[in-house]
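step: validate -> pass
step: tokenize input -> pass
step: predict -> running
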Amino acid sequence: MKDWLRIFDQNVLVPPHPQRARQPIKESTAFQCVLKWLDGPLIKQGVLEVLSEVGCCLRVSLFDVTYRHFFGRTWKTAVRPVEQLSRQPSRIVFDESLYFHTSLNHPNIVAVVEVVTEGRRPDGSLQALSCGFGILRIFGNKLESPTSASQDKRLKLYHGTPRALLHPLLHDPVEQNKHMTLMESCSLQYMLRPHPLLEPVFHLLPENLLVSGLQHIPGLLPAHGEKGDALRKPRLQKSVTWDLDDLFFTLYPSLEKFEEELLELLVSDRFREEGIPRDGGTLEILERRLCVGVHNGLGFVQRPQVVVLVPEMDVALTRSASFSRKVGSSSKASSGNQALVLRSRLRLRELVRHPAFAIVFQLEYVFNSPSGADGKATSVTSLSSVACMHMVRWAVWNPLPEAGSGKVVLPLQGGIRPNPSHRLVYKVPPACMSSKEVEQVASGTVQFQYSLSPKGHLDTLPGHGHGPEAEQQPSRKPPASPASPPALPARGHAAPQDSPVGPGLSLSQLAASPRSAARCRSATPSSPQPAGSEPSPAQAQGLPLEGRICHLEAELSQASLVLGASVAEHLQELPFTPVHVPIVAGVQARSSGSKLSRASMVLLQASGFPEILDANKQPAETVNPADPVQFNPQKEESDCLQGNEIVLQFLAFSRVSQDSRAAPWPKTVYFTFQFYRFPPVTTPRLQLVRLDEAGRTLPGSLLHLLVLADRDDSSDAGSPGFQLKFLAEPGFLRPGEQSRFSHYLAAQALQVDVWDGDSLLLVGSAAVPMKHLLRQGRPAVQVSHELEVVATEYEQDVVVSGDVTRLGSIQPIGVYAVVKGWLHLTLANIGHVCEQRGRDSSTLPPSRSRVISNDRTGHFEGGSLLRRGAPRPVKNVVQAQKLADVDCELAAMLFVPTQRRSKGPQGAGREGDAVRRRKLERMRSVRLQESRGELSCWGASMLAQQSVRAQHARDLQVIAAYRERTKAESITSALSLAITTKHTVHVTLGTAEFFEFAFRNPHNTQHTVTIEVDNPELSIISDSREWRFFKDAAKLHTPVEEDMFRLRGGLAPQLFLRPRETAHIPFKYQTFSVGQAPAEPSSEKGTDPGSPQKRSATPTKHAKVVFRGGGGKPIAVLCVTVETQPPAADQVFRFYHPELTFLKKAIRLPPWHTLPGAPVGRPGEEPQVHVRCSDPNVICETQNVGPGEPRDVFLKVASGRSPESKDFFVLVYTDRWLATPVQIWRIHLHSLQRVDVSCVTGQRTRLSLVLRGTQAVRRVRAFTSHPQELTTDPRGVFVLPPRGVQDLHVGVTPRRAGTRFIHLNLVDVDYHQLVASWLVCLSCRPPLISKAFEITLAAGEGKGANKRITYTNPYPTPRTYRLLSDRPDLLQFREESFQVGGGETYTIGLRFASRQSAGEEEILIYINDHEDKNEEAFCVKVTYQ
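step: predict -> pass
step: emit ->
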């Protein structure tokens, strides 16, 4: 047992990344890697001086580049002494072999080799230092294993440690990353090759385990000799067969109490974790399973056998003669102490007489939750959501080598101790027993009889092809890895009364299994099968039948589904509308009526805003925003001024009347928006400068000019306003995009978000229509808008009124839209004349460029000999390049120095320099001979020349070998270029780009062509209806064929072509993923974010289509270059949500006939709406509703950790084939730290937030979105020390009951950066009303009324009280606080303000003590008539 525990504890493996487990399972491949020697000065001289007994070793680990995840176990070579580093070149010889096998056949699965130096410090302690690492590629780029040819290779080494691979900046390919520094003259000589001889011993070695040939593997015979490699040609040890009989488990204090406690804890856990009510979360035990397998310390030799245990009393009712154990001997006349027994014999053929081989017992319970309140069994369709399995106990038995038969009693184990299955195990009783003997059996015991099989002791260890699964299902190929080996011995090998045996299942497989009338703890068994009877054929196949236990390992066969359908019916789903607050999309700007008087408009126009002029320096034509727009697409396309310069002028910002409950008016603001597909724009901070009060018409409507603010928040001396320009010219727009840009201006509205420049809180949003920017042949137009800035608040809990089972009857409550002010904005469009450029293939109309052909690909341009971009005086004459200049690896292997070769001009100039240098060398040698004339100098010169000639000769040999090695690859590349057609498509998110490839069979024979596409976003259109739809949209008149392709499931489609026949193959490129969003540039005054130098570079993708003939040889190659362009969002939604929670929102679509591009149909013919999301982790869906009903798009998004933010797009389609989206929404989800506060309205609740300092000293200030309800201490600016911890005291005094959110930001006042942010979730309950009053007032322009109420101090001592009201706009106090003696009465003066409209209002009056705790609460009902 000690050997097994030692090997088990030393070989714990880190599993691969969870995403790899979801990929299709592949066959495991075995490898042998020989690490030969290490070249180069890796160890510095300083290390040798500090450390003694210095040695060097190699450490090898498996690494997943895609997910930046190390897995498996690190393997280490023997430490080699470092003594001969003085000689050059330095070399450390290892010559060690390591073996492993893996099924992760992917190019990004690599082996990381680390060079480690070990030595002893002066105090004698051991120290290890990393000297560098290398990345060993196991698989090629084409998902293929390395070739079988054993060739030595050199591994480049890099500075640093392998932990650098975890840095997020190291993207694949890692070797070419700029942060990786190559170690000069340092390399590792190795050899990597497949090792098929390791496949017969896969069951003894876990996957991804790196082992040495010198390491002893349990189950293998040692190699011949002392230094033999046991894994080079592994040999299996002989196995013996053991039989286990009379196996039973005893659980303490009794089986009944043990299971009752287990069920109670599970129900309590479900109530705490999942919120399932205790009364509705009852569980029942479906099965008690036992998994028995042979373990060699590294892993299970075969998949464990799964059998079913039953209570002892159930066996007593149906026991047969084969069950030899007496019931009374174990229970001792006590039914409460019964055990779990196995009614059959277990036979284990994989055991080897080795100290590390052990038998592992695992006790599992399968639970089921009844679907109905009466506890009836669930149907087949509901089992997938209610079945679960837990391991409760396990045990290990290591047979003695000389044992033949006997009886064993083992203590069961549980709790957090590591187990062979690496799963969580049910807890063990507390260790408070009186003795160790009692403590060992407190978790239960397992008892059984063991004996050697009389059929023979020397059975060979079974291979993978001899398992029982192969016997039951001959057509299936059994897996080759120990993670999924063949299942267990077949039932034919067991006794007739054997418990059914099946493979171990995961939870997903368990949930997918059918269920029958199983015998469980809370269910009554029906018609049990008599003991001793043979199982029927249906039972042998594992079909669920009445009267027999159906085990969960039964397959979902056709018969089982038929039987399941006969006993249970599917529930019929009722129409139900999700309780989500719908947000109405497509909010139109309301700028028709002017909110300013004419006097204010005069002051605004006289403020000195820059005048907008056209190309002829004339003022642009002013358009009234209330006038209708007549859009003529032909007039826009025929306009000679094809360049459009869009100008945005932010002029002023006016606010509504000041509300005492509202936040104070900001001092500075900034704006964020995105125009068309230009990069998102964030303006600089703009100062709000108040205009002369003489221009005001309303006492609360204040006008503030927008002036560019300096660093010290002072206004700039320049002209007021802020101006931005976007240049949409043919150089920016792709061919055919001009009409789309015109439709964008005609139909879309630009959404502008207004932010507080000091608190960085969102003030509100405004939407401005852009249809007035259409020039319609005019040189320039401009339009001025007064836009409402609206802030929308959502309550945390949504109250819905209406019948939820009726469509269209839901009336959401809890959405508040508040007008914060008006934004004065001027838009202009100035036309420009663009230069006429020559027409090339890239500027053809889209209708013609959608058909490409491979007719012109059969020519040769010189291959790699051609100097790209160089002038070619003769058509078929090219100039060769030196091989050392082409390949850097070849240049590194040459003996002649290459420093001079890399400098100087290219081409013929370099050859002239070489001739000149050769002549100078000859002249220098002649002068040297003439001046000295000594024989010794001549001899030295001759030796130098011979050395140079020898180096040149060796270089020529290296170059010749290099040419022979790359000749086949170069010829193949040149031939591939001759049949390659290149095409470029410009794609936008969600829009399908359609084109046809006119493929011509170049041969005189017919071919069945297989079309292989390496990019999932590029697909072949196989449906003729979809093909016809895209042809009509592109106005193509090429022929359409029915059943053109032969589809073979997941394989590549095939096409039949006759000799010299041409076929049009339709392709569609469509992407729903968005790359990394570009950074939001900050535009200073007068800058142009739409200029070419400001446009962000978009990523370029590539797709390759290979057309292969019958023999697999390529006939044609189509290379598609994809130029991605950022999408133009129709509307922007911004949500703030607590971190690590789910955001559930419903966005209501506008009427479908108002969407751009919607077809005009008869009444009642509404198109079907489809939605897609750019983030695959976001659940986005819509439901079909009745005619005339509004449509909602439902979103479910998981928020990340604070302060992360998610940015994704939602695409709405109205066509069947998802060709072009009619709406594109951009959604921002900000995750904030959540602070839950439970409070009473009118009473202050105090809490503290922890502030953590950054690396530098910061001057910060706390800002809140509701300053009247939430206050902070310190109030003003305070200093946050670096890396310090400080408390921010928060006081919350809510004015109204309910649940809502309050934003709290901590801002650096010097740099205007967000340091921390919280989302305060208030749950406010109303106070207890002690008195109620009623008053009637006149509505309209009345003066209000003065009233008085009395309050008596109930305390014997004087007290000071504060007065608050939930409606300070309607009720004011004569005094905010008062002091009254003990037992005395005080008169409170009230001033009620009038209201314009009639109605009723309930106003609460809070009387608080000096700590703001509520003493009394009065309610005054005011009726306005």
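step: describe -> The first helix runs from residue 2 to 10.
step: cleanup -> pass
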